[in-house]
């Protein structure tokens, strides 16, 4: 009896064993090739996107004084940047289909390094070697650290791979670790949104945390959509599954809201702060989401995980040094705003009058004490001479006020 039942027992346990193998990380050479393909696609995409954005920015700067607000649409430079941007984003999108999410997300540091190098190349000023090194020493150190961190990320990144079929994605979506993660993220997101909207807590950390939480869901859905498209191209159609369109809608919605909060942050804070803090927060949130949803680090040894974390920290430090060395733009408004005239509404409704400026001078314009601007752009000032009635021996004021009266 036992000998007759043992083969059937083994046959019944075979599907369970096969299902268990599908979630284990691959250790063959093909999985490392997939990691390399995904990493190269991500690096290529971020590099091309950085070049594209700088080309479009260059086109906007050249046509800044044009009467036509949309004159850049007629330039080849802007359209070249647009097509390169589309190509770069397609490269980044396709990289999620090959490599784990936790490996692809930190590689966005490549775009920061590329922007720093392109910014140095396009500078028109002539620098002496010592002044050049002193001015850009932090950028060079940051670029070196970001490159070292990228190398560690690619070398010691997670190596877990599974086919992005509708069945696998649905199983991950209803797993209890991800449901618990989603519950915590929704609670944190609602609290941050309450303080941001109701309490007017416009701190950069709060806004970029909202962006990071939305971005973590964006990259999860991007990997699902890209993976299902790749599986469909390989011969197993997945585009007829409802989960594909659910992920697609979530990807578009979270990306739109993420861009909205980023636009609000860019109106309040400097782009260098947004780049460094946003990169750190978004990468951390995305890696956490990938480790929870796709189980990226399942089966990885402690050494690989520690070296991967070290690569992230080095990349964080490199991006921070690069963005810290950027010059902060000085806002300048060489004209009198009509809403800043005496008796008009105060700026930002904070009770601080913009004009008149009675700090030892009349200031014609919206700025005051801007020593960094050239002398030809500084607001014209007139000295204040207090009028003293009934006193003799007082010198005449340097200007005379003429009063015209109507003749009856």
Order of helices and strands: HHHHHHHHHHHHEE
Number of strands: 2
- Biggest sheet overview: 2 strands, antiparallel
State the strand order across the main sheet: 1-2
Shape: globular
Number of helical regions:
12
Low-pLDDT stretches: 1-28, 331-338, 343-378, 384-395, 403-408
What fraction of the residues are assigned to beta strands by DSSP?
Answer: under 5%
Average pLDDT score = 77
Which value, in Å, is the CA radius of gyration? 30 Å
Q: Which structural class best describes the helix and strand composition? A: mainly alpha
In whole angstroms, the N-to-C terminal distance is 130 Å
Give helix % range. 55-70%
Describe this structure in words.
It is found in: Membrane. This is NPAL3 protein. It contains 12 helices and 2 strands, in the order ααααααααααααββ. Residues about 1-30, about 330-340, about 345-380, about 385-395 and about 405-408 have low confidence and may be disordered. It is mostly helical. Among the domains are: about 165-295; about 335-385, no CATH class.
Task: Draw up the topology in text.
Layout: H1 2-21, H2 29-62, H3 76-95, H4 101-104, H5 109-121, H6 129-156, H7 166-173, H8 176-197, H9 204-233, H10 242-268, H11 271-293, H12 302-324, E1 362-363, E2 381-382
Antiparallel strand pairs: 1-2
Helix pairs in contact: 2-3, 2-5, 5-6, 5-12, 6-12, 8-9, 9-10, 9-11, 11-12
């Amino acid at each position: 009896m036992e000998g007759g039942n043992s083969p059937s027992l083994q046959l019944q346990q075979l599907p369970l064993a096969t299902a268990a193998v599908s979630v284990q990380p691959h250790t063959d050479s093909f999985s490392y090739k997939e990691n390399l393909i995904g990493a190269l696609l991500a690096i290529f995409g971020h590099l091309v996107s950085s070049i594209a954005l700088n080309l479009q920015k260059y086109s906007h700067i050249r046509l800044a004084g044009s009467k036509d607000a949309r004159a850049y649409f007629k330039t080849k430079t802007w359209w070249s940047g647009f097509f390169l941007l589309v190509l770069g984003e397609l490269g980044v999108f396709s990289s999620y289909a090959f490599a784990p999410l936790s490996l692809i997300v930190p590689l966005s540091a490549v775009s920061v390094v590329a922007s720093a190098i392109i910014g140095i190349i396009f500078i028109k000023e002539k620098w002496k070697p010592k002044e050049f090194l002193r001015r850009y020493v932090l950028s060079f150190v940051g670029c070196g650290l970001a490159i070292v961190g990228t190398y560690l990320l690619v070398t010691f990144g997670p190596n877990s791979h599974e086919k992005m079929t509708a069945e696998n994605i649905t199983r991950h979506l209803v797993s209890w670790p991800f449901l618990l993660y989603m519950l915590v993220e929704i609670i944190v997101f609602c609290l941050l949104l309450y303080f941001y909207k109701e309490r007017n807590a416009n701190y950069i950390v709060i806004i970029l945390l909202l962006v990071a939480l939305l971005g973590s869901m964006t990259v999860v859905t991007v990997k699902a959509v890209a993976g299902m498209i790749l599986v469909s191209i390989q011969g197993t159609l997945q585009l007829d599954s409802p989960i594909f369109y659910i992920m697609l809608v979530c990807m578009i919605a979270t990306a739109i809201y993420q861009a909205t909060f980023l636009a609000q942050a860019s109106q309040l804070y400097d782009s260098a702060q947004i780049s460094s803090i946003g990169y750190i927060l978004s990468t951390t949130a995305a890696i956490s989401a990938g480790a929870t949803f796709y189980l990226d680090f399942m089966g990885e040894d402690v050494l690989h995980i520690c070296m991967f974390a070290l690569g992230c920290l080095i990349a964080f430090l490199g991006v921070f040094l690069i963005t810290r060395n950027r010059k902060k733009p000085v806002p300048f408004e060489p004209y009198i705003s009509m809403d800043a005239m005496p008796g008009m509404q105060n700026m930002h409704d904070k009770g601080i009058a913009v004009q008149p400026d009675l700090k030892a001078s009349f200031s014609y314009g919206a700025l005051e004490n801007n020593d960094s601007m050239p002398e030809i752009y500084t607001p014209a000032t007139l000295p204040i001479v207090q009028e003293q009635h009934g006193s003799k021996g007082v010198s005449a004021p340097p200007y005379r006020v003429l009063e015209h009266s109507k003749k009856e």
